[in-house]
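Input structure tokens:
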């Protein structure tokens, strides 16, 4: 069927037939040119993501070009440079494995459903390290067991941040600027928060937080942990000397393949 493509078929894309064939081959990757794959997954019930928009911004395309230039021409120049890239891949694989395998298991799903809101969302990560009610003995699915997996995920995300920051310094790019490090670290001290960091290419313009969903508030529109994150960001926006304004976004994580699509947003 690809051989039958003509220019008129792709006029709306402003692609010639030959370019369309090249695009088709690239997407199907029969020559194995891609060095990564994209696999959809759904956060287990009980985990949520909140995003922050930060007044200001970064030139993501320019940042990405500098990192790719560093990867191609300079990352082999020193041990640490190469270490950042390889270790970031290891950390990301660990994060993917935890989210798609460990947190998809029935014991974790059931444990989050039973103890997430009542116990885990009301304790900081430091407190997750200690025995909790209903789990004086660790068993598969206990709150202590689930907390251990949450800490594994937290550590992997922290290591990913460290490698991104180190890579940014090596490439001369502010992937995680010091201001973002300060904001993420302060957020990670709150109860229920698993980890925070900069999404995408990094920079000054956004932050993500992965957390255990707390008790519902505002008739189910929000939850206790989400509210506390928003309150912290407002306080930091009011007191920081750099005039940065951190705004929580009203977007919620949604599973792939469902009727809600990529995300659910209440425009009201």
């Amino acid at each position: 069927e690809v051989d039958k493509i003509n220019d008129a078929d792709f006029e709306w894309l402003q692609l010639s037939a030959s370019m369309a064939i090249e695009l088709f081959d690239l997407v199907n990757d029969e020559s194995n040119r891609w060095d990564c794959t994209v696999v959809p997954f759904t956060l287990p019930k009980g985990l949520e993501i909140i995003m922050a928009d930060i007044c200001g911004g970064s030139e993501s395309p320019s940042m990405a070009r500098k990192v790719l230039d560093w990867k191609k021409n300079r990352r082999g120049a020193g041990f640490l440079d190469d270490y950042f890239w390889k270790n970031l891949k290891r950390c990301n694989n660990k994060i993917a494995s935890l989210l798609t395998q460990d947190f998809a298991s029935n014991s974790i799903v059931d444990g989050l459903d039973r103890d997430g809101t009542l116990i885990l969302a009301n304790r900081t990560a430091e407190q997750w390290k200690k025995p909790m009610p209903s789990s004086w003995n660790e068993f598969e699915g206990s709150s202590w067991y689930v907390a251990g997996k949450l800490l594994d995920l937290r550590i992997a995300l922290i290591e990913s941040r460290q490698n991104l920051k180190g890579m940014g310094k090596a490439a001369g790019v502010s992937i995680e600027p010091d201001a973002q490090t300060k904001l993420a670290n302060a957020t990670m001290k709150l109860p229920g928060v698993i980890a925070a960091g900069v999404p995408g290419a990094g920079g000054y313009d956004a932050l993500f937080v992965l957390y255990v969903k707390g008790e519902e508030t505002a008739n189910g529109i929000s939850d206790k942990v989400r509210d506390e994150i928003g309150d912290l960001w407002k306080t930091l926006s009011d007191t920081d000397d750099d005039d940065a304004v951190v705004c929580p976004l009203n977007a919620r994580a949604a599973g792939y393949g469902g009727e809600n699509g990529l995300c659910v947003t209440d425009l009201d």
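The chain has a mean pLDDT of 81. The beta strands are 47-54, 193-197, 206-212, 216-217, 222-223, 246-248, 251-253, 263-265.
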